[in-house]
Amino acid sequence: MKDRNNFYKKLKSQLDETTTFPSNYLYKFIVSNEGNKVALVREIFEGKDATITIKKSKTEKYNSISVVIHIENSNQVISYYKQAEKIEGIISL
């Protein structure tokens, strides 16, 4: 857990240094095609006026999910990542 906290602390610092908020932010996730993982990612951004694009892998075992959403600050970016990391097996890029 300490590693996750350090990761998010470093990410926040990098975002604050390199991004002017508010702005659009691109999230990229990879999830397996098993179960309802795509739906779980969609739920995170539901009602938030996000543009979500889903592409299946060639083998159709995985889905690549791109989400573009208007973000107010670095804390909000991290909040969405923390919600997504609760989905089993998700990979955040």
Description:
The protein has 93 residues and is an alpha+beta fold. It is built from three helices and four strands, in the order αβαββαβ. A four-stranded antiparallel beta sheet has the order 2-3-1-4. A hairpin with a 5-residue loop joins strand 2 and strand 3. The model has no long low-confidence stretch (mean pLDDT 96).
Give structural attributes.
single chain; 93 residues; alpha+beta; Alpha-Beta Plaits; four-stranded antiparallel sheet; 3 helices; 4 strands; 30% strand; globular
Helices and strands in order:
Elements: H1 2-18, E1 23-32, H2 37-45, E2 51-56, E3 62-71, H3 74-84, E4 91-92
Give the structure's gist in a few sentences:
The protein is of the alpha+beta class and 93 residues long. It contains 3 helices and 4 strands, in the order αβαββαβ. The mean pLDDT is 96.
